[in-house]
Design brief:
The protein is about 40% helix and about 20% strand. The chain contains four helices and five strands. Strands 1-2-3-4-5 form a five-stranded mixed β-sheet, sandwiched between helices. Helix 1 packs parallel to helix 2. The longest helix is centred in the first third of the chain and has 17 residues. The protein is globular, with a radius of gyration of 15 Å. This is RsbT antagonist protein RsbS. It comes from Geodermatophilus dictyosporus.
Length: about 130
């Protein structure tokens, strides 16, 4: 029997939405990184939203891993935005001198998707059809 899922990665058109449901240890965070980067190529994602709203702590390794995911995604042709950083987590990150580097942030999933729509263009349907208008 398996326990609850720690993360989920869902495809929405040309975007991937990755939600972290609970705090991850370093090994789990590294596995999440590898899974997400693999999915970017497999799904030909143009944008990635990483939702961390469920986290009440974001340690230096997790922060570094999010930056790394963003940079690797960029090299693979996808824009990354981190959403849902809780106020207490943001205060702690600033106090400790941690940040997300060049990876953009947004308040929530809705704003993250709107940001990607502005930067990479509207989401395309999950299943593209061939031919002209009906």
């Amino acid at each position: 029997m398996t326990g609850p899922r720690l993360v989920s990665i869902l495809r929405q058109g040309s975007y991937l939405i990755a939600s972290i449901h609970t705090a991850l240890d370093d090994t789990e965070m590294t596995a999440f990184q590898h899974d997400l980067v693999e999915r970017i190529g497999r799904d030909r994602a143009r944008g990635v939203v990483i939702d961390v709203a469920a986290l009440d702590v974001l340690d230096s390794f997790a922060s570094w891993t999010l930056r790394t995911i963003g940079e690797v995604a960029r090299l693979r042709g996808a824009v990354t935005v981190v959403v849902g950083i809780q106020p207490e987590v943001a205060f702690a990150m600033v106090a400790l001198g941690m940040d997300t580097g060049s990876v953009r942030t947004a308040l929530d999933l809705e704003e993250g998707l709107a940001f990607l729509d502005r930067v990479v263009g509207p989401r395309r349907p999950a299943t593209a059809t061939r031919g002209g208008p009906a």
